[in-house]
Write a structure and sequence with these properties.
The chain is an alpha+beta fold and 379 residues long. The chain folds into two domains: 10-172, 2,3-Dihydroxybiphenyl 1,2-Dioxygenase, domain 1 (Roll); 179-375, Roll (2,3-Dihydroxybiphenyl 1,2-Dioxygenase, domain 1), CATH 3.10.180.10. The protein is built from nine helices and 17 strands. The strands form two sheets. The chain has a nine-stranded mixed sheet with strand order 6-7-8-5-1-4-3-2-9. It has an eight-stranded mixed sheet with strand order 11-12-13-10-14-17-16-15, with helices on both faces. A hairpin with a 6-residue loop joins strand 12 (224-231) and strand 13 (238-245). The chain is globular, with a radius of gyration of 20 Å. It binds fe (ii) ion. Fe (ii) ion binds at residues 184, 186, 267, 269, 346, 356.
């Protein structure tokens, strides 16, 4: 049974703190087909940070950078490199959400505050979660009382903006890449901490455990990890939490924790309705993906049965396939996006399957370990 007592409408946005906001915003436009729709910075009266709102389908990323060394954003980037600082959840009532989260043991990062936005009012509050990652509750109310939507009223201090004036890519940003929504996002936490964060999401947000994978399910010859998938009452928001398990060598989760200097968001899975078109477009734009071993496709038909997509196209693009009782899914993973081997993206298309590609874990992790070895971090 879902616990629907804690209403969360959706992931409102994900905010990344980065070293150079303008260039990372440019990257998400050019490489992933996001559209810049709003921003804040010196010209809008924001003296401490600049932020860029990037949208595609229902996905909203905010890229924020420090304008002064005293900014907490600068401190975050110094410690963690570029990464996810805030997961923002749209709720019907911030005060109710905050009260329940605090009753469940959450520590408040910033109390509820209200500010005008175009067309209405914004109310938000922030709590601490794993590592330096925070969860922000967001509520928007139109002046008339009903909820507002659309980037014009995104957040206080943001003003509409369609392009970065310093650089206009030839031929524009090239349109979107068919990315529609955030399917899930995954947190890496320290060894022994997974269950604490599972309980935290349960107590503070009313999340429940959808499924779990032990270290026997997720292991290679060298390393292992454990994962529990948490989801909200509606089942729309899914947050798997990974912790490293003992293996012969350093697991990919440990590599992340070493370089991120603690727990944080490991990957963001973006949904598409046509993964062949999306991944083709991303590759054309230069996005680098992890390659499955050549043997991956040899017995794939026997393992996953008939698919709606041509197997050759999937193999050409390096797309992985997995099947469960309810259907199948197609997925592929980018190389880490920042300089440190931390945050990466997944592209996923679901045909009924509700899993996370368990059948691909071994092939995928072996591909990750090859990259890890090239970085000198598989010892
Ligand atoms: Fe994933």
């Amino acid at each position: 049974m879902f616990d629907s007592s804690f209403p969360i409408r959706r992931i409102d946005h994900i905010e990344l703190y980065v070293g150079s906001g303008r260039q990372v915003a440019e990257f998400f436009q050019r490489a992933f087909g996001f559209h810049l729709t709003a921003w804040r910075g010196l010209e809008t009266g924001s003296r401490e940070v600049a932020s860029y709102l990037l949208e595609q389908g229902d996905i909203r990323l905010v890229v924020t950078t420090a304008l002064t060394p005293e900014s907490p954003v600068a401190r975050h980037v110094w410690e963690h490199g570029d990464g996810v600082a805030v997961i923002a959840l749209e709720v019907p009532a911030v005060d109710v959400a905050l009260e329940r989260a605090v009753a469940g043991g959450a520590e408040v990062a910033s109390d509820a505050e209200e500010a005008p936005i175009a067309g209405g009012t914004w109310r938000s509050a922030t709590i601490h979660a794993f590592g330096d990652t925070r969860l922000r509750f967001v509520e928007r109310r139109a002046s008339g009382g009903a909820g507002v939507s659309g980037s014009w009223g995104f957040a206080p201090g943001f003003e509409p903006r369609a392009s970065l004036s310093t650089y206009a890519p030839p031929g524009g940003s090239g349109g979107d890449c068919g990315l529609t929504a955030i399917d899930h996002l995954v947190a890496n936490v320290e060894r022994g901490a997974m269950d604490r964060w599972v309980r935290f999401l349960g107590a503070t947000l009313g999340f429940t455990e959808l499924m779990h994978f032990d270290d026997r399910a997720i292991s290679t010859e060298y390393s292992a990890l454990m994962s529990k998938v948490m989801q909200d009452g509606t089942g729309r928001i899914k947050i798997p939490i990974n912790e490293p398990a003992a293996g012969r060598r350093k697991s990919q989760v440990e590599e992340y924790l070493d370089f991120y200097r603690g727990p944080g968001v490991q990957h963001i899975a973006l949904e598409t309705a046509d993964i062949i078109r999306t991944v083709g477009a991303l590759r054309d734009r230069g996005v680098a993906f992890l390659q499955p071993p050549a043997t991956y496709y040899h017995d794939l038909s026997a393992r996953v049965g008939r698919l709606g997509e041509p197997m050759e196209a999937l193999a050409d693009l390096g797309i992985l396939v997995d099947r469960d009782d309810e259907g199948y899914l197609l997925q592929i993973f980018t190389e880490p996006v920042p300089d440190r081997p931390t945050l990466f993206f997944e592209i996923i298309q679901r045909h009924g399957a509700r899993g996370f590609g368990e059948g691909n874990f071994r092939a995928l992790f072996e591909a990750i370990e090859r990259e890890q070895a090239r970085r000198g971090n598989l010892d």
